Structure formats: structure tokens, C-alpha cells
Amino acid sequence: MTGIENLLLEHQQEELTNRELGFWLYLMTDAIIFALLFATYVVMFSNTAGGTEPAQLFDLSHVGWETTCLLLSSTSFGLAWLAVQADKRQTAVLWLVVTCLLGVSFLGLEIKEFVDLINQQATPQRSGYLSAFFTLVATHGLHVSIGLLGILVMIGQLIMEGRTAPVISRLFRLGLFWHFLDIIWIGIFSVVYLPVFIR
Amino acid sequence: MTLLGRLSLEALPFYSWVAMGGAVVTLLAVLLPVLFLSYKRLWPWLWREWLTSVDHKKIGVMYIVLALAMLVRGFIDAIMMRAQQAIALNNEGYLPPEHFEQIFTSHGTIMIFFMAMPFLTGLINIIVPLQIGARDVAFPFLNSVSLWLTAAGAGLVATSLVIGRFSTAGWTGYPPYSGIQYSPGVGVDYWIWALMVSGVGSTLTGINFIVTILRCRAPGMTLMKMPLFVWTTLCTSLLIAFAFPALTVVAAMLGLDRTLGMHFFTNELGGNMMNFANLLWIWGHPEVYILILPAFGIYSEVTATFARKPLFGYRSLVYATAVIALLSFTVWLHHFFTMGSSASVNAVFGIATMVIAVPTGVKIFDWLFTLFRGQITFHPALLFTIGFIVTFVIGGMTGVLLAIPPVDYQMHNTTFLVAHFHNMLIPGALFGYLAGMQYWFPKAFGFTLNQRWGKWIFWLWTIGFYLAFMPLYLVGLLGMPRRLEQYTTPEWQPYLIVAFIGACFVLAGLCAIFIQLWVSVREREQNRDTTGDPWDGRTLEWYTSSPPAPYNFASIPKGDERDAFWQMKQTRMAYRFTQPSSIILPANTGMGVLLGVSGGILGFAMVWHIWWLALLALISIIALVVVRSSREERVSIYQPELIQSLEKPWQTSLAQAGLIGDGDPI
Amino acid sequence: MARLFIRSLTSAPLLHLYGLMMLCGLVVLSGCSLQSSPLLYPKGPVASTERELMLFAIAIMLTVLIPVWGLTLWCCRRYRKGGKGEYRPDWCSSTLVECGVWGGPLIIILLIGYLVVVYTFRLDPYKPLTVHSTDTTPFPVQAVALDWKWLFIYPELGIATVNELVFPQSRPLALEITSDTVMTSFMIPALGGQIYAMAGMTTHLNLIADQPGTFTGRNTQFSGTGFPQMYFSAKALPDKAFEDWLGTVRNASSMLNSAHYHQLARPNKSYAPVEYFSSVDTDLFNHILARYSAPSTALANGAL
Questions:
Q1: Is B233 among the domain residues?
Q2: What letter does residue B487 receive in the DSSP assignment?
Q3: B362 with C102: Cβ contact below 8 A
Q4: Rounded to whole angstroms, how far apart are CA atoms A167 and A169?
Q5: Residue A20 sits in which domain range?
Q6: pLDDT at C29 (0 to 100)
Q7: With a CB-CB cutoff of 8 Å, which residues 558-587 of chain B face chain A?
Q8: pTM, whole model, 2 decimals?
Q9: pLDDT digit string (tens) for B534-581?
Q10: C77 and C178 share a domain?
Q11: Touching A: which chains, 3+ CB pairs < 8 A?
Q12: Helix axes of B380-403 and C45-78: crossing angle, nearest 10 degrees
């Protein structure tokens, strides 16, 4: 029955290659979502309606820590990927756990930022500008949460199933997603936070 | 905060007879099939063979069933509006404003999202994998998920007839009217969630078919050898993938405004309604081409087949399609020339819009030159194509008129505009889908549709269209705005009465569709398509049995010529079969249905603010996705012996038809 | 019988029925006169130019449409199975024809595109208009969309009217438009095109009437239950008649102050009757704007 097994393997290989192309396309649709959220943010920038101005909202060191966490988590994901390539399953799991912790810290910092803002009456209901700010940043945060869920699932799969072709392919796609979120964050940093600090 | 959120007994439609009537009809339309299936004990069969199927052909058929059901629903809305406007001169007519508003909103929403989109997706599903010589789409499971998310969206719109009310803000849902301040009920929320749930399904379909077409083509089939329907599907899929995210964003923002009290589009506190118009039409204009490009593909296939000639100017047609797809993203502002943009902005977008008329004109001429020097048989599918060419150019002309900003200032928001876009979408898109149905039905079901009734459908729809919409052009020139529940201008009424008569013709045409199905099913034995090639076809979908086996082709055909099957027949290379080898197909799964149901429940819970239910539905969706990704994919394997026995009847018929000799190897 | 009917359609395809349809169209046209069309029989230079532009574009495009119709019918007749035309099963390309099919539409679109550039600037609704013979200044009117009626404020005269827009025919009309409700669209089709009215924003529309008369104006953008009632009459009066009308308004007893405005802004169920206000708070229009576009909270809470 090796014929059938070969066929199954071939089928699986083709499937996984298709999925990679499909995933790139998905990322593209997601990029469009973010592009439109960015555009909306820029359009709404001056619509503060007498509420808190952007200049009064942000704290440089806080954003700095968020950025550090997220960029480091991308690095640790890269290390996990290298470990998987080198057939070191334990190391890979370890780096994924580190990624997870960094991601959770990022989320924690973001939630703290939101809570602080809301305590200062800078709620998303206050003005069009704040609606756009919260929606853009929280959409990214939501993506990070989904990514974290994915990382947890991948840790489970690495432990349970080991380095099978589907697991490696999924890890690769999750990696794309995670790095994509980094790029989006750099966008957020440059469009949302940086102009305020420069001024 | 209560357990059922905003949901209470007041949501039931006891407040008026019209609402009650709508609810009863909806319930009957659901209950009768359910009872019939239960009585015949068909549920296990339905579940096993259809609902859980990941076979692109069955998914396609289910899409079209949904589309036809929604066509009926959307048409009932249409004829109710026509009847109201025909009588509502200086009186209230028979529909109170609230109902009239719900009806024009649901008519547009249903026809675009739950009639046209499923219809074209269904045709694409059935045909594209066959035309490119593939065994299935790239992601069969995702395909099933898309179907059930679309169905969930349609289900939400249908639910709004029974529980609560639908939006009154028109299918475009412009704020601030659609905001919580001016539309406090659940209607707009139904609209938002129906769009978001089905929009995710559409996006996945787009991705699915891009990958399918780019990666699963038969050996030898380079891009420039693909049938034109495949090209238009590729362009449509790209448009879906690029444009639908905008719809998701704009619907989500409106939802945030309404549910969380944000200020994206409100009048107060820095909201910006103009941003809504921009975002909506960044999706909305490409959407028009999403709907019409596949129809262009169908016309191309039908013209070539029934003129018995290759398409004239294949390359031109491909480039024209691609140019249309590209330009469709550059014209959105023409939907609101009257918003007060500067003359230079309006002029740029006006010219960009008119430029689209060039590739479209090229297409028209290319189809005509395909007919030229052909040998034409007037199959109903070709009648639809000719009716399309003759009628569509009128819509093209009025489209160019509307693209001239100063003319648009006069025509915008009038029934002239309504007539224009119906002129594009009925003879443009819907005629194409109906032509596709007439043309490809035997491939899906193994017997041809009754052609006499097919011709009746064509003539009734065509006459109905002219009678219903030419008066709307004229009454638009008389200055009648769209969405008018009653009026005081007596000059308008004669036109509106003629339009109502037109709607009655279309009603007859709609009935004819179902009569044709019924007659054809009754006479199916006489009209069997035993060879799989009833129209002397040109492309690969005709090079397999009707209906095809689950794996489509026992051995994958070669696609190294344009009109590959026609060339094979010319060179007598067709029907030469080799020994088949094993084939792997994905196994059926109920997860698509479960995801669709969860999506529908999520939408319903969000509409009514039943937070715990929304959370449950969300958890269920996440759990399903995680389980799906963690489990080994189940497949079914077709052994050579099984394939041979499945292919036997077709090959016997081919031998009987003299297409293969007895001595040919099987 | 039915079969015979169908067969006759397929043998001499389409010709008869399309003839019939054209005939039907003509009957419809003659039966219901289009002479009341404000677009086809405009009463002002803006609308007249818009009509000319439309008719000219139609004429240009008919040079494509008529050949398309002719070619379709001719091909269907000549190349039907059993027809006179010669069947050439492999003929599918011709450089000459290709050039024609790309070039033809392109030339037409270039032509219309040129018209678009010229006329979009010439008919820009924001462009102030002048009457040729005189150097009269435009007559300013501020229009406010309410649920579901139009309020007109005449800043030059300090008066206001509801659902009636009256102006001296000798002067161009310069409208400033906003909304104190949802987005609506202001249009007097006999004089020229429409423009949206949006809360917190001002849009502009400049019109001229070239003869005295009463024209219908309306909101064309669906705005809720009372949308069908949201129309008004626009009256262009000769100077003398205008002065008389002004006298009537000045004699009206009601004045439009903040309290009265709030009452007026409430949604009306049936058609809001014409109302005259002999005086009006000169800043009313700006106050209505400021309710939505206020940069500070003080204003957002409403000076009104």
C-alpha cells in the first residue's frame, strides 16, 4: 500500500503549499482592514470635539515598553522557528512560551493604557478621534490575542504531535501572522504615537 | 440588564397585518420544506449527502438553491414597492411608511448579498474547478464554511421578518440616519450583522478561488489558455479579497457607533458621515464588478458555444476584464459627486468612471464579432446573451451620463439612477446567471432544462424589464426621487403604473423559472445528457460525465490549448481513456454547518444584546477552529476498481453514441 | 400555438419584438407628456447647460449604440444556423477590428472626458454666478434641513420662511445649506442640480432663474418617515412682486427665536405648512452649525 501512502503524502504536500498561498492572501485582506483603520484614524485626527487632545494622551515610556515586548516576542518566535528547523522540539516549545509571555505582557500594558485613558475621561465614546484611536489599537490587540491563542494551540500540537509536516506548516503561517502584527504595530507607533512625541 | 437583552414579546410582529403576513409567509417557507423532509424521512440523506458535503458541485447547487429562494423573497419586496408607488398618489397607499422603508432596504440587501452573490458563487463553484480540470477547489472545507456563513447571513435577514424588524436605512445604510439616534431599533443591527457574517464567507470564497485558479489548473493550461469564465472568476475573486475588508470595516464601525456609543459617523462629537460614504463605496463599487464580471464570463462561454466559434479577441477580452477590475477601485467617489467635493476631484473621478466604458465596449464588440461568421443556434442561454447586449448598452449609456458630474447633480437620488443600476444588474448580471443556469444545468444534474420554457423565461424577463425600468428612467427625468412612499405629483403616476405592469411580467418570468424546473424534472428521462456534452461544448467541463463523479475526472485532462475540449474533438484526441489510478478526496464534515450556525447565533445575539449567548457562540467558533486545526484531515480514497465502475455508465453511453469505438481501452 | 410563436421568434430572431418594444416606448412617451419635466424643460441657465450636456452626450453615445443594435440583429439574422452567412469556424482575430473596438470607444470617451473637465468646472455648484446684463450681487439664502421640512433664512433681510423659498428673479441665488438632522440633499431640478446637506457642515449651491415662476424643490435623499413630505416651492418673483411678498412677511406676527426654533425643529407628521417669520436671530444658521462642529464642550452643550 505504499502507493496510497505516497499519494496521501503528495496530497498533503499540495494542500500545505496551497494553504501558504491562501494565508498570504488572508494577510493581505487583513492588511487592507488595517489600512482603512489607519486612514480613518488620520481623517478623524482633529475631531476631538473638545475632548482630550492626542498630545495629552500618551506616555512615551509606556509605549516604549509595549514596543519592546512586541518586538522581542517576534525575535523569540523566530528563535522558536529556528529550533523547530533544527529538530529541537523542547527548545522550540520554550521559545514559544517566552513569546507567549511577552505577548501577554504587551496585552497587559495595552489594557493598562486603555484603563488609564478611560479613567481620565478619554473614553472611546468621548469623541470621533478617540473612537478611531481605540478601534485601531484595540483591533491590533485583538489580533495579538488571537495570535496568543494560536501559539498556545501550537505549543500543544508540538508536544502532542511533534514535528509533522502539518504542524511545521501551521507554525510557519502563525509566524507570518505574528511578524505581520509587528509590522502593523510599527505602523501604529509611527502614525499614532510618534507624531505626538515629536511635537 | 435582562437575560434576553433587548428581546421581548414586543419583537413579535403583532403590530400590523403586513408584518404578520410577512412573518407567516416566512415561517411557512421554512416549515413546509422541514415538514416535507421529515415526512419523507430525508433528513439523514440530506445531512450526509448535501449539508456536510465539501464537494464543490454540491456546494454550488446549494448556493443556487439559496439564491433562487432569495430571488423570490427579494422579488416579493420589489413588486410590493411597485404596487405601492402605482397607487400612492396623494394617499398613503396600502403600505405604512415603516413597512415601505423596510421593504426597500431588504430588497436591496437581499438581492445584492443573498441573491446575486450566492448565485454567482454557486455557478463559479460548480463550473470553475471543472473548467480548469481540477478535482475540487483548493480548500474544500473552507468552501463549505463560506456557504454556511452566507446562509447564516440570509437566515438573519429572514429572522428579522419574524423577530423584530429590519433596517429602514436603505441597502447602503447611510449614517447618521442609520445611527442609534435616528434608528434606535434592531433593524440596522440585523443589517450590519447579516453583512458581516456573510461578508466573511464571501472573503473566504474570494481567497479560495484565487488559490484554486492559480494552483490547481490542469497540466498545460497557462493563464492565457484559461476559459474566459475562469479569467472573470479570477478577477472577481481578487476584487472580493480586496474589497470585502472595506465592507467589514465600515459595518463594524457603524456597529461600534450603535452598540458601544462611539462617534465614527454620528452628527455629534466629531463623527464624520462622509467617511462612511467613502469606505462603503470603496467596497461598493468593486462589488458591482464582482457581480457582473462572472456574468461577462458566462456570456463569453455561451456566445462561443452557440456560435460554434472561438471567442473573438480572446486577449482583448482578458485585458479588458483585468482593466475593469483594476479601474473599479478608482471610481468610488462617483457615488457622491453631490457631497460638495471640488470640481477637480469630481472631474477626475468622472473621467476615471467613463474610462471603464472603454473595456466594457470592447467586450460588447468582441462578443458581436464572435457571433459574426458563426453558426448560431438560439438556445435560451444565447437569447439571454443577446438580450443582455442589446439592453446593457442602454445601461452603459446612462452610466456614462451619470459619470458626468453636472449631469449627475440632476440625476442623483432620482429613479433615473434606480433604473440605471437595475439596467446593469438585471440584464447585466442576472441575465448572465440565468444564462449560466440554462447552459450548465445538465452538467450539474445530468439532464437538460426544457428549452421552450427557457425561452418563455427570457421573453417575460426582457419585456418585464423594459416595462418596469424604462418608465423609471423617464419619471426620473420628471424629478422623482427614489425611495418615495407617497407623492403628490400626478404626472408621475402613469409611469409608475406601467412599471408595475412590468413587475407583473417579471413575476410571470419568475414563475416560469420554477415551472421550467418542474417540467424538466418531470421529463428528465427524455432529456438525459448521457454524453456529458449536450451543446457540443468547447471547454473542459464538458469532457466528463453529467453529473461528474465526485472526483470530476478519472484522469486529469490536458489543457494545453484554448478551448481544450473542442481542439481534442477536432483532432480526435477526445475520449481516450487510460487506466485510472487512486484518487484522494477530502471527507465530508459537519463542521461547516456548525460554524455557520454559530456565526448566525453570534449575529442574532449581538443584534439583541444577549451577551452570554454571543459569548457562547464565539467560544463555539473558536473551539471549532481549534479542533479542526488539531485533527488529522479525514479523506476518502477512490480505488481504481471503484473509479472504473463509476466511469462505466458514461463510457458505455459514449460508445453507444459512437464517440469511442468498442476497441478503445477503458 | 405557443410553439408556433416561439418558433417564429427563433427563426426571425428578435427583430419583431424589439420593434414592438420601441413602439410601446413611443406610446408611453406620447401618452404621458414629458413636458412637465424640470430637467428637459429647465427654467435657469445652470439646468439648461446641464440638459444640453446630457443631450449632447446621449447623441455621441448613440453613434455606438445604434451600430451595436444593428450589428446584433444583423449577425443574429445572417449567421443563424441555416442563414445566409458563411460559417468560418476558426475566425477569431483581426488586428484591424481590434483597433476599431478599442479605438472607437476610446475616442468617444476622450470626447466626453473633455466635456467633463470643461463643464464640471463651469457648472461647479460652489461657483458664484453673475447675471450677464447687470452687476447685481447674489441673493443669499441659508437653507436648513429639518425633520421633515426646509427652513430658509434670509440674512440680508432678517426674515425666515418654512417650506417656501422666495427670491428676486433678477438676482442669482446663493444658497448656504446645512442640516439639523440626518444627511439630506437639496434640489430644485428646474434651476439646477443638487447638493447634500449635512449637520455641522455647510455646502453651497448657486442658481439662477431666467424667468419668474414657481418651481418645486425637494430633499432627494431618504431621511425617514416624513421624507415624502420634504418638498417646498421655490418662487422667483419680479422685483415688484418680491417687494410685496417681503411686506407680507414683515407683517407676520411670529419671530424665530431660539425657543421657537426648537419647537420648529421637532419632527412633523404631515406636510409642514408654509410659515413666515418677520424676524430671525441673525446668528441662527451659525448656531445650528455649531451644535455639531463645536470645537469646545461649551459650544457642544449648545448656545441654542
A1: yes
A2: B
A3: yes
A4: 5
A5: 2-198
A6: 56
A7: 581-582, 584
A8: 0.93
A9: 999 999 999 999 999 999 999 899 988 899 999 998 888 888 888 888
A10: no
A11: B, C
A12: 160
